[in-house]
């Protein structure tokens, strides 16, 4: 089977670098969240519907026409209409995908292999499953992050309000009291005065951090630092590590089952996984593969790959069943990731409730304690 790579890699590497820059602007690149998820959702639906229709024996032109007629979303319909127009003008399906600027090199390369090998319906089904699972994982991660982020934002807004408005009101009342205030009350009042005095500087500091991220998020030193801090963060670090490990196994499994040679698979995966430790590791693996080393040996020098993954890769190479072994690894890692995300949700909810409740209780108790003391003196 002949696989075309040179022109495709040259053209797509520029588009992929542009996509990386835009996706890196949120937290790390995997997220210009709304746009990124909408693209993956479209791809999941598109590949699913196309695989069903093509698998049922319908030609590609007729399949796209049916998809267009049944799609209520204008943006998705416009993309599909452009694909159909390119195919009517004589383009292959893979070339039509490439000219749309919506699909990645991974999608284009996989479809091209399907066209050349006569397994287009199989490749379409694999791509549908790939994006379906990827969407599912992203929804879980987004859902796990949404709750703590909302709670923390609510807590910050509540603290700002209480320290800037509620505490100063009580402070004016306390000035009329004779006698000393409780230590906890003096502490909260001092905190309120400090916060009011330096709130502008805190805002400027947060703005400075955002500007640093905006201007330096593509710099190697900055990406190295952020990824290192992310991986060292308790709980979150293990989830991030497992998420990218799952993506690596899923992608290599699909490329191996599509009969893409290992070198090209590593190049494709490196362009897809834009997490700095993986980019460095995969670039090194590519160089070692070109010098004749096995994949398992090349992976051995990088901490991002655990010993289990390396050992299973060595076994897969020995029996020449890389696709089967990596499919099982993907299923196992994705199940483990699901469990970790659910466990994090179960852990964060009570911790955040206790944290927020404790802060509010601290301020309320500190403000009302002098009043209670006055009441006891009166009686």
Q: What CATH architecture of the largest domain do you see?
A: Up-down Bundle
**Helix-residue proportion:** over 70%
Strand content: under 5%
Helix-strand pattern, N to C? Answer: HHHHHHHHHHHHHHH
CATH topology of the largest domain: Receptor-associated Protein
Q: How many distinct helices?
A: 15
Largest sheet report: none
Derived from helix and strand composition plus strand pairing, the structural class reads mainly alpha
The total domain count is 2
Q: Return the CATH class of the largest domain.
A: Mainly Alpha
What general form does the structure show? elongated
Q: State Rg.
A: 28 Å
pLDDT below 50 for ≥5 consecutive residues: which ranges?
1-36
The number of E-state strands comes to 0
CATH superfamily label of the largest domain: Type II secretion system (T2SS), domain F
Cα distance spanning the termini: 95 Å
The average pLDDT score comes to 79
């Amino acid at each position: 089977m002949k696989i075309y790579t040179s022109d495709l890699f040259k053209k797509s590497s520029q588009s992929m670098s542009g996509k990386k820059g835009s996706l890196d602007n949120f937290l790390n690149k995997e997220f210009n969240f709304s746009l990124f998820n909408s693209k993956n959702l479209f791809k999941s639906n598109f590949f699913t519907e196309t695989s069903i229709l093509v698998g049922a024996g319908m030609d590609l032109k007729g399949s796209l026409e049916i998809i267009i007629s049944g799609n209520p979303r204008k943006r998705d319909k416009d993309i599909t209409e452009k694909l159909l127009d390119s195919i009517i003008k004589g383009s292959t399906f893979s070339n039509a995908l490439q000219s749309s600027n919506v699909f990645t090199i991974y999608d284009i390369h996989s479809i091209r292999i399907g066209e050349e090998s006569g397994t287009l319906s199989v490749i379409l089904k694999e791509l549908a499953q790939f994006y379906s699972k990827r969407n599912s994982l992203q929804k879980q991660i987004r859902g796990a992050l949404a709750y703590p982020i909302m709670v923390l934002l609510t807590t910050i807004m509540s603290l700002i309000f209480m320290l800037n408005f509620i505490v100063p009101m009580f402070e004016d009342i306390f000035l009329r009291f004779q006698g000393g205030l409780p230590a906890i009350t003096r502490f909260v009042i001092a905190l309120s005065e400090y916060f009011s005095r330096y709130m502008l500087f805190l805002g400027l500091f947060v703005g400075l951090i955002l500007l640093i991220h905006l201007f330096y998020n593509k710099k190697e030193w900055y990406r190295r630092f952020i990824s290192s801090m992310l991986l060292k963060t308790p709980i979150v670090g293990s989830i991030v590590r497992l998420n990218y490990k799952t993506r690596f196994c899923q992608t290599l499994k699909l490329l191996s089952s599509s009969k893409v040679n290992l070198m090209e698979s590593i190049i494709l995966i490196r362009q897809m996984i834009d997490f700095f430790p993986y980019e460095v590791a995969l670039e090194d693996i590519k160089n070692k593969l070109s010098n004749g080393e096995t994949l398992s040996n090349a992976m051995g020098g990088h901490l991002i790959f655990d010993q289990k993954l390396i050992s299973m890769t060595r076994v897969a190479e020995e029996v020449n069943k890389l696709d089967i072994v990596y499919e099982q690894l993907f299923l196992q890692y994705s199940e483990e990731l699901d469990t970790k995300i659910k466990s994090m949700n179960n852990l964060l909810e009570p911790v955040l409730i206790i944290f927020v409740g404790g802060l509010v209780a601290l301020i309320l108790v500190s403000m009302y304690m002098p009043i209670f003391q006055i009441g006891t003196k009166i009686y």
